[in-house]
Specification:
There is one protein chain. By secondary structure, the protein is an alpha/beta fold. Helices cover about 35% and strands about 15% of the residues. It has 12 helices and 13 strands. A 7-stranded mixed beta sheet has the order 1-9-8-5-4-2-3, sandwiched between helices. Strands 6-7 form a two-stranded antiparallel ribbon. The chain has a two-stranded antiparallel sheet with strand order 10-11. Strand 6 and strand 7 form a beta hairpin. The longest helix is centred in the C-terminal third of the chain and has 18 residues. The protein is globular and about 65 Å long. The two termini are about 35 Å apart. The structure holds pyridoxal-5'-phosphate (PLP). Pyridoxal-5'-phosphate binds next to helix 4 and helix 5.
Amino acid sequence: MKYKNIDKILPNNLHRQFLLHKDEYEKKALEILNSGWYILGKEVTTFEKEWADYIGTKYCVGLASGLDALWISFKILGIKENDEVIVCSNDYIACVMGITINGATPVFVEPDEFYNIDVDKIEEKISDKTKAILAVHLFGQSCDMTKIMDIAKKYNLYVVEDCAQSHGNHWKDKVVGSIGDIGCFSFYPSKGCGAFGDAGCITTNNAELAKKVIIFRNYGSEKRYYNETVGTNSRLDELQAGLLRVKLKHMNSLNKERVKLADRYNKGIKNELIIKPKVKKNADSTWHQYVIRCLYRNELMEYLDKNNIGTLIHYPIPPHLSQAYEYLGFKVGDFPIAEKYANEVLSLPMYNGMTKEEQDKVINAINRFKI
Ligand SMILES: *Cc1c(COP(=O)(O)O)cnc(C)c1O
């Protein structure tokens, strides 16, 4: 496709993925607007079935966001005050909020060189209060799920997978979100299968857990106006579900395109100041982000900005140092690897519909960067 020349390359360009299948989205949106049914209807039910098939689970329950998927999962697993949940010190703040909204305590474990939880450091953090491990598949790459499932079995812990950034990623021959007790997904627009607004879901093979989420998302009621428990409103709407169905049809080619973009970065970037991302054995990557590291990260970011190339930092402040979690009482130096990453990581422009010309501009600029 030919795009209008733009002055600045954005870190993420959501308009492009819309343009790739514009006619199909427009047709579906109009169809739903004309249907007269907007909440929890056939689009949601069909999407839930299609997403469960894509992930390889028996059930999928649509929700309003990824954060809802996380906290509702912990809630229905019975995780509450005085319980502990293991999570990586390098993860997105929403992962931690999913735990603390229920009053539980996050117990941080440092990341490995792939930016995911270091599975060799989990066992030393398990106490008699530990109830679950939250395995966050960050940047489009699976955690070591074999090791995590072994540890969970040994200590009788739940495993919740946060697959917000890894739609369609594999661990061995399984798709993430089908391995632990529950998989949590966000369909925030920038995510792999991004919606055109907020949306999320859970996946599971456990009929009882799926049923609990179905009831909880709709004020604790299965039958209208008969409420079994105090629930919440976290419904996926028909418009988002319908648009997600359109995108899901193209997920394999969208993910393939990102792998191609990452390959071009891997081959093209040749600057000793840059550490490129790696993919671990048994995993693949859908490249939710292409994250490099550089000791002169801030200088690099400024230099690229001057060259009209936008970048982002995922994430500048690790959760244990965030103001929101001051009450946990951590200080600088408590999780040195997560802190080092926060100071060195930079996410390069990466989006479906990115042109070769745009990518060459990024690669050439990075290769010219000196300090
Ligand atoms: C985006 C994201 C979330 C939160 O999803 P929302 O839909 O924005 O609530 C949770 N975890 C991870 C890893 C994410 O990237």
